[in-house]
Amino acid sequence: MSTPHDPSVTDPTSLTLIGSAQAREPEAWRRLVILYSPSIFHWAKRAGLGDEDSADITQEVWISVNANLDRFRKEPQTGTFRGWLWTITRNKTYDLFRRKDEALAASGGTSAQIALANIPEEEPADATDHAAPNMIEQALEFIRPDFEPQTWQAFWRMTVDGHSAREIAEDLKIAANAVHQARFRVVKRLRQELTALGIIDDPTFAGLMPAPA
Known about the structure:
The chain is an all-alpha fold. The chain is built from 9 helices and no strands. The chain has helices at 17-22, 26-46, 51-68, 81-103, 110-118, 125-143, 149-159, 165-172, 176-196. The chain is elongated, with a radius of gyration of 21 Å. 27% of the residues are buried.
């Protein structure tokens, strides 16, 4: 039976998440869907859709992503994975408004044109801010099994609860330096996870995570 382990700072596993999803690995795909579905739903709602339509858009986006994931490359001209999802969501939202116009036999596609005009070409900053807490929370859940309970507790109490290294060390019966090392390892791993998804290197998320010092 395997036991949790503390990954080294050179562990590249999280950096291959999108590549693993492109290789059709179920766990990588599951992670992407869990991380980004709330954002897609929020974007659809922000465009003026109701809950049911927003849920449909979310499903349609993932169908499109599944069919075209092999084409995605994180490059300056293509942008981040999240930005790519935003573009797909925008297009699917427009398509839905257009279908509604056709169903109502509306002339000129007025509703779709208005909807498209009200949806920015690029993801708005407030939509990104909405996604941040969910992404970090989910990323933490993904990486937690990689660490021993004591390592995780030391990280959590220092980074989230704001306790001092000395206080944590006394409670856990370890050296204060071990507390700092625990924080370093978890924050480093979390940064890898978020960087792999194009979050940390996005200016909108500047200062989102503490440095692994």
